[in-house]
Model the fold of this input.
Amino acid sequence: MKRSNHKAPVMNNVNESINQIKESNRFFELKSGFGKKYLIETHGCQMNEHDSEKLEGFLSQMNYVKTDAREEADLIIFNTCCVRENAELKIYGKLGALKHLKKKSKDLIIALCGCMMQQKHVVDYVQTTYPHVDLIFGTHNLHNFPALLQRTLEEEGAIIDVWSEEGEIIEGLAVSRKFGIKSFVNIMYGCNNFCTYCIVPYTRGRERSREVMEVVREVEELVSNGTKEVMLLGQNVNSYGKTLEGNVDFSDLLIKVAEIQGIQRIRFMTSHPKDLSEKLIETMGNIREICNHIHLPLQAGSNKVLKEMNRGYTQEEYLRIITKIKNRIPEIAITTDIIVGFPGEEEKDFEKTLKVAETVKFDSAFTFLYSKREGTPAARSSEHIAEDVKKVRFQRLKKLIDEIAYYKNQQLLNQTVEVLVEGSSKKNPNIYTGRTETSKTVNFPGDPSLEGKIVRVKILDAKTYSFDGEVKEVLS
Ligand code: SAH
Ligand code: SF4
Ligand code: F3S
Done:
C-alpha cells in the first residue's frame, strides 16, 4: 500500500497519463470491439456533483465510456459524502456489495474519493475492511486523478493518496457537462466558518475564491455551448472575494456574470445569513437574470442553539434579513436548511425553530436530524439528544414545513409561470420537466423541441413538492 501526503508538481504527469491511458483504451477497443466503461456514483452536495463532472471530463478524454450497469463497468468510482453518519453507512454497504464483482473480474478497478476520504480513520477502516478497493484519493487532489489511475492500472496493491491540505486552485481542467442547459460553476472552494456540527471545513479545507475572470471565462464558454442557467457554487458565496486581491465581492461577480451575452438565469448556493449584504439584496433586485430565489440556511430558531452552533447571527437578525429581502423582492422564494436535535436543544428551543418557520413561510426546507461527526466540537458535547426525541421533533417540523409549502403552492393554481425546460421525465418520456425562477418543479406534456426553451405554463395542479401544468406559450 502506498500513502502519500505531499503535493508533487502534477500537471505534466496528468497530461502524460491521460495520453497513455487513452492509447491503451483505444488498443483495448480495437481488440475487443467495445470501449472501456466507467460508472461514477455521486453522493452529497452540488460540490461533489460538480467534482464528478470533472472526473467525467477526464474519463472521456481517456476514451472511457459511461455505463449505468455495475456488471459491465471496468472502473467504478464512489464520490463520497460524510456530512451525516447515514451518508457514510450507505457507502460501506455499497462497498461490501462490490466484493463479489471484484471476485468475478480481477481487472475491475474500484476507486473512492470525496469528503469521506479526507478523514484518516475512514481511510484506515476501508483499507482493513475492504481490501478490494484499488484507489483512494481526496477532495484536494482530484486534478491528479489521471496520474493516480495510471499508477493503479500499472502498480501492484492499492494506491492511496489523500492530501491533508488544499493546494492552489487549479484552472483549466477538462469538464464534461451533464446538462447543457443548466451548469454548475465553482466560484470558491472550502469553508472558514466552522459551524460546530459540520465536517465540511475539515474535508474541503480553507475558503479560497476563484478569480472573477476565470469564472466569467468558464460561464462564457458554457453559454456558447448552450447553457442557459448557471448555478454558482460555494459553501458561503456571500464571502466570495475575501481571498482575492483588490476589492471584489459577490455582488460584483454577479454583475459581471449577468453581463455575459446569452445567459438567461443565474442561481447561487449557499448564502450564509451572517454575510448577506444589503448590496446583494439590491443587486438581486436590480438584475433580471438573477433568479428570484434564495437558499438561506436557518439551522435553528433559538439564539442559544445558534450560538452553540457558532452560526454568527441571532433569530432576530435572520428575520430582519428576510424582511429586507421580501420588501425589495416581494415575489422571491425562500428555502432553507434546518437541523433538529442539536446537542442541548430543549423543547422550548425547538419551538422557536417552529415559530421561525411559521413566520418566514419557507417555500421548502431541507430538514436534518443532527448527526454526530467525529472531530467536530459539537460531537464532544455531553448533552446529546435521545434519538426518539429527535425523531418526534423532526416529524413535527417536517409536517409544518410541508403544510406551509402546500399552502404556498396552492396560490399558484391557475396562474401562468415561466419555466426553463430541462428535459423529459425518466418515467414518462412524453412528460417534460423544468423549474420556475423560484426553483419550483413543474411537469407538463411536451416534446424534445422544448428542451432549453423558456415556456409559459399554466398550473393545473399544485402539490407539496411539484406542480403539473400545460404549456401555453414558448418564449425563447
Ligand atoms: N455550506 C452550506 C451547507 C453545507 S452542508 C451552509 O452553510 O449552508 C448542508 C447542510 O447539511 C447544512 O446546511 C446543515 O443543515 C446540514 N448539516 C451539516 N452538518 C450536519 C450534521 N452534523 N448533522 C445534521 N445536519 C448537518
Ligand atoms: Fe458547514 Fe457552516 Fe461551512 Fe456551511 S458554513 S459548510 S454549515 S461550516
Ligand atoms: Fe458536500 Fe457532503 Fe462534502 S455535503 S462538501 S459532499 S461532506
Remarks:
- Residues 83-84, 197-198, 200, 235-236, 270, 272, 297, 299, 337, 339, 368, 370-371, 373 surround S-adenosyl-L-homocysteine (ligand 1) (CB under 6 Å).
- The chain has three domains: 2-161, 182-408, 416-474.
- Confidence is low (pLDDT under 50) at residues 1-9.
- Residues 221 and 362 are 35 Å apart (CA to CA).
